[in-house]
């Protein structure tokens, strides 16, 4: 059923007496507890599969009908369940993300590293389509990093994106007056060109954030100075190239990640792989990345047009070309 018709029907039913409580699509499933589902294996012991996907942010995802938890919140929720379960010997984090904000990426790194240190449980990162910039940043604490044969990864660097409106305002004859307390109070303003002095200040911030990223790569990956210099160009790599330069440990499929996690944790070869979701899905499997039905994606046009909006001004560990995927 087309989403426009589904939305209209749901709205009509909501207006009928006694119908609203029965319409699950309008329920706030983000407030329902995460439940465990087995997606692979039948033996003793568990490997927890946790997905990390999309643009990484600590802000909730806002939709027309409701908000959904951010990637940071959901990953922390899932890690807590895995940490509290004595049967879980290892975690596989499935990453499909071009990165995100510098802070969200760093929080994810911190939480995964803290999980390892507190629990002593092994972590395997399994990369899918894209695990670039902040997506790769989040993978760094893993004991083993595996990429799908067609993964794009790398982009180890920082980008400062901000929309500029000064050219458009000149064309339509609109201006903005600013009163400020210091010379640099409005640095980065979208209403005027950036000055050379401001560019130098921004570059200093970018260099600081990049240095942190580079330091963590050097800490977790056994790269030679020459390899690290190549990585610092912030280019992207195929899975094979990333394996050759030392950014990842293995090229394979998600089943290989499960096998590695089971072996590292000393679990049986058929140990169960479990994941945490808010909804039940028939014929579930490891490739299901949904945690709940997502009415926030619905809108009156039946499309999600968020990817065409200009970026929010800020510093990002992100591969911009991956944002439209």
TrEMBL record:
Stated family: Belongs to the peptidase S49 family.
Keywords tagged on the record: Hydrolase, Protease, Serine protease
Name of this protein: Signal peptide peptidase SppA
UniProt-listed NCBIfam families: SppA_dom
Organism of provenance: Pseudodesulfovibrio portus
Domain Peptidase S49: 117-266
């Amino acid at each position: 059923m087309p989403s426009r018709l589904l939305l209209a029907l749901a709205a009509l039913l909501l207006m009928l007496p006694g119908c609203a409580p029965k319409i699950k699509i309008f329920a706030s499933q983000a407030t329902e507890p995460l439940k465990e589902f087995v997606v692979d294996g039948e033996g003793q012991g568990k490997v927890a599969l946790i997905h990390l996907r999309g643009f990484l942010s600590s802000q909730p995802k806002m939709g027309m009908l409701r908000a959904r938890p951010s990637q940071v919140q959901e990953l922390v929720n899932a890690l807590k369940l895995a940490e509290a379960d004595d049967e879980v010997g290892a975690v596989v984090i499935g990453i499909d993300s071009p990165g995100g904000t510098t802070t969200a990426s760093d929080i994810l790194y911190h939480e995964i590293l803290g999980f390892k240190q507190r629990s002593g449980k092994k972590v395997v990162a399994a990369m899918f389509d894209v695990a670039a910039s902040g997506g790769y940043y989040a993978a760094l604490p893993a004991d083993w990093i595996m990429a799908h044969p067609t993964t794009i990864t790398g982009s180890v660097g920082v980008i400062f994106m901000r929309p500029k409106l000064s050219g458009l305002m000149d064309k339509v004859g609109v201006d903005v007056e600013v009163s400020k307390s210091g010379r640099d109070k409005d640095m980065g303003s979208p209403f005027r060109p950036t000055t050379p002095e401001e560019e130098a200040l921004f570059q200093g911030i970018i260099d600081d954030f990049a240095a942190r990223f580079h330091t963590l790569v050097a800490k977790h990956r056994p790269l030679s100075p020459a390899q690290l210099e190549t990585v610092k160009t912030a280019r992207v790599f195929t899975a094979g190239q990333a394996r050759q330069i030392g950014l990842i440990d293995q090229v394979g499929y998600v089943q290989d990640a499960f096998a590695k996690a089971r072996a590292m944790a000393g679990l049986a070869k058929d140990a169960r792989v479990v994941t945490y979701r808010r909804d039940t899905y028939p014929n579930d499997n490891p490739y299901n990345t949904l945690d709940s039905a997502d009415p926030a994606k619905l809108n009156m046009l039946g499309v999600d047009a968020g990817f065409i909006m200009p970026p929010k001004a800020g510093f990002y560990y992100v591969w911009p070309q991956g944002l439209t995927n």
